[in-house]
Amino acid sequence: MKTRNWIILLLALALVLLGFNMYGAYKKQVAVRPVPCLDPEVFLEQHQHATLQIIVDGKAETIPTNIGISEACESALHTHDTSGTLHVEAQDVYPYTLGDFFRVWQKSIERNGYVLTTYVDAVQYNKAPEDIVLKDKQQIILSYVRIP
């Protein structure tokens, strides 16, 4: 009887672990929702501007012009100049994140050989920086320091 109880307990534990694994895979799928192109005939539901500053070993790095803008598409997340202003001009109310912007930019937030410290509105942000929801007038700083 004891062996049977152990088998049932192990099977139940395996099912719980499988459930957590499937939930994690689901969350990853949801997190990589594509950022849509704007339709010039549809009204904007969001029009916000966050500012991103990237500092690498104490030196400011330029955010390029026209990230998310091409002849074929103006993405809901984009830049117009090198000021670091991130434009959230969207035709939906989806909570776009810094991770979404970096996917549009086709860059990784993480950098090999560097430690990243993130600040949002001058307060250190201790969660994953890709999860920062972009908001109007928000100031985001990504500070990278090379690992010695």
Q: What does this molecule look like?
A:
This protein is of the alpha+beta class and 148 residues long. It has a domain at 46-146: Ubiquitin-like (UB roll) (Roll). It has helices at residues 2-31, 98-105, and strands at 46-56, 59-61, 77-78, 85-90, 114-120, 123-125, 139-146. Strands 1, 2, 3, 4, 5, 6 and 7 form a seven-stranded mixed sheet that branches. A hairpin with a 6-residue loop joins strand 3 (77-78) and strand 4 (85-90).
Short description:
By secondary structure, the protein is α+β, with helices and mostly antiparallel strands. Helices cover 26% and strands 27% of the residues.
Kindly state the mean pLDDT as a whole number? 90
**Percent in strands:** 25-35%
Instruction: Return the structural class.
Output: alpha+beta
Q: Let me know the number of strands.
A: 7
Determine the fraction of residues in helical runs and give it as a percent range. Answer: 25-40%
Q: How large is the count of helical segments? A: 2
Shape: extended
What is the CA-CA span between the terminal residues?
58 Å
Overall radius of gyration: 20 Å
CATH topology name of the domain at 46-146, in short, is Ubiquitin-like (UB roll)
Q: Describe the biggest sheet?
A: 7 strands, mixed
CATH class of the domain at 46-146: Alpha Beta
Q: Element order, helices and strands?
A: HEEEEHEEE
Task: Quickly give the CATH architecture of the domain at 46-146.
Answer: Roll
List low-pLDDT spans.
Answer: none
